[in-house]
Fold:
Amino acid sequence: MTNVMSPGRGSRSSLGQRVRADFPILEQSFDGNPLVYLDNAATTQKPRAVLDALVGYYARANSNVGRGYHRLAFAATDAYEESRAVVQRAINAEHPDEVVFVPGTTAAMNMLADTFGRATVSEGDQVVVTGMEHNSNLLPWRRLCEATGAELVVVQTDEQGALNPSRFADAMGPRVRLAAVTHVSNVLGTVNPVRELIDTAHRWEVPVVVDGAQAIPHRQVDVRDLNADFYCFSGHKVYGPMSTGVLYGKRDLLTDLPPWQVGGGTVKDVRADEPVRYVPAPARLEAGTPNVAGAVGLAAAFDYLTEIGWSDIRRHDETLVRAAVEEVGDVPGVRVLGNPAADPSGIVSLVVDGIHPYDVCGHLDHNGIAIRAGVHCANTFVDTLDPVGTVRLSFAVYNTVEELELVSRALRTVEPGLWTTEHPTERFL
Structure:
């Protein structure tokens, strides 16, 4: 791994250059253009430390956990539980058993809706969400309300796509049983005042579920400081493997959760003529063979970021976001949406007047620049912003200001294409 602890470590402009060599996929070029990967809100690339951890697990410890009485099984179980402890420390959970490994944020939200939600929400109750939610933190609660006869209350954002805490407070009341909010918008990078929202909800004794998928790669999350009841994120957003993720829950809340899926690893005993006896959380919530290698890789990702240093990562984000706003803001016809520089969190969304986002995306791809265009699985939020979709630049530790200059240059030469001329209002996720 690159020596990220080398002199000059605090430099705001050099982090991307120093760590880029840690990411083998970035060595590629397309049509003579070096790869500029700016689709990190969709998924981040993996450093060698993570790749080595995955290969090392499969090469030296691969076995099922908690089921075998042999050395490989012991090694796999130890690696799995050590990974849980790494995540516990990374998010400052009080206990390792407050960390449940899941396939990702979507799975975590569905688990909570189908267990905690079903036990908490009944006909006539209310579930509060914000107007900027990703579909993964909207649809599970919407389906819960449809199934139970509860009301889904959506706290809309302002014209800048930001949430006014007073609007959220106004939505609280005696019928509210649960609130679900995103920490950072995946469309605009807007950072919600999550601690304030949680405090407001708790005054009404309303538990809060936080979607932390976009926050976790950009800031050191402290679930105890936030006082979050549940906090969910995906491993692949934070330089870990795909199909990994975490559902954090306060111990007393996890203790009461029934199994979401049942099967191997969830029970103490099963007899044909007696009630099933389930093991405590988190194992009760991790049915079947877990993604042990994924957990090991996720722990390696957190170790990698810890070595870089969260303060350096935050400064790097601030530099990139503000440079992006300045660079693209100077391009004729380009409009930056929201106010990403107010509290930079690695995302800048824009529109190019008169040109469909997919045409912009295709043009940038021809220049070796990978970005995301569309509604970003947040249809209802993008609808309030009015464009067909947005062009989203999202940053990671390996990105540089020089790459943003390439984006600015490419945007100056984009022209209307097939989408603009033949499908001007069509979009997909």
